[in-house]
Design brief:
Chain lengths: ~190, ~100
């Protein structure tokens, strides 16, 4: 199986569509998941931004010099797309709403339903740092590179975000759902 | 008062990754990539044709004065000038194709 670097070189060198398709297939889950969490469950907008992310990556792929992973480069683009979107829609403070009452306290619900609700409890930066650290298993320096935040701030966002979630879950007597999927949390965020 | 949420359970929840169906998404992205490629080619073709047409018109208009200019020059001087011009173009081509790295 070809590495991301080889595939990117093919796209940049000979405009290889099949190679780019492989890159999209490989990374779409992580990018869409990341944006879905940033947008706290707005799946339609998240997928639109993910498409824009891949399109921008296709245009700029020659500029990726292979420093850092292809995944972190894509996440950087996705995060910038998200920030741009947020600036444009700053007046519609939809994302600042409190969690939906549809989540019944005291009952374990599916992690896929509960997570977007929980993400609304934390700030955008906390959301980004938590998702990158736990769902994508990125290291703190990688998160620094993606978000452009200082290392200390990234650590603070992660710890404060966790505290907020823990407190809310405790206050609302939520039992945690069993997260089936593919947890990458044991990753390298130490 | 409920028990505090165990740390590892919250970690596991935050690390949850939903398996998203890829087919439709990938098709949409590739469709947009192909469309962009087509429009880029079309723009290049249109501007190339416009450039070519203006170039041809300019060459026609200038052919008379250029011919008159060169007919007045000595043959050896013209050949030397052409040689210098070709060398300059070759040097420019070589330097522009070099991947100059700014990394230390």
């Amino acid at each position: 199986m070809l590495s991301d670097l080889d595939l990117a070189a093919r796209v940049a060198g000979s405009d290889d569509q099949a190679a780019f398709q492989q890159l999209v297939e490989r990374h779409q889950g992580a990018i869409r998941g990341f944006l879905r969490r940033l947008l706290a469950g707005d799946h339609g907008t998240a997928d639109d931004l993910a498409q824009e992310t891949f399109l921008l990556a296709y245009r700029k792929i020659a500029g990726w010099k292979g420093s850092g992973t292809f995944s972190s480069w894509l996440h950087t683009i996705a995060y910038r797309q998200f920030l741009q979107f947020r600036r444009k829609h700053a007046r519609q403070q939809v994302m600042a709403e409190p969690p939906d009452a549809g989540v019944d306290p005291g009952h374990a619900v599916d992690a896929g339903i509960m997570l977007p609700q929980l993400m609304r409890l934390v700030s955008t930066e906390e959301r980004a740092c938590l998702t990158l650290a736990y769902a994508t298993g990125m290291t703190h320096p990688e998160i620094v590179e993606i978000t452009g935040l200082p290392l200390g701030t990234v650590k603070t966002h992660i710890s404060r975000g966790r505290q907020k979630l823990q407190q809310w879950l405790k206050d609302n007597d939520h039992s945690l759902p069993t997260a089936g999927g593919d947890p990458a949390s044991e990753a390298k965020h130490a | 008062m409920p028990d505090p949420i165990p740390e590892h359970e919250l970690d596991q929840l935050l690390g949850f990754r939903e398996a998203l169906p890829a087919d439709a998404f990938v098709l949409d992205v590739m469709h947009r990539v192909r469309r962009e490629r087509r429009s880029r080619k079309l723009i290049l073709l249109i501007f190339g044709l416009i450039g070519g047409a203006f170039g041809a018109a300019g060459a026609l208009l200038l052919s008379g004065p250029v011919a008159r200019f060169f007919s007045g020059l000595p043959l050896t001087g013209t050949m030397q000038a052409v040689l210098v011009a070709v060398a300059a173009v070759a040097f420019y081509g070589w330097i522009m194709n070099e991947d100059i790295s700014l990394d230390t």
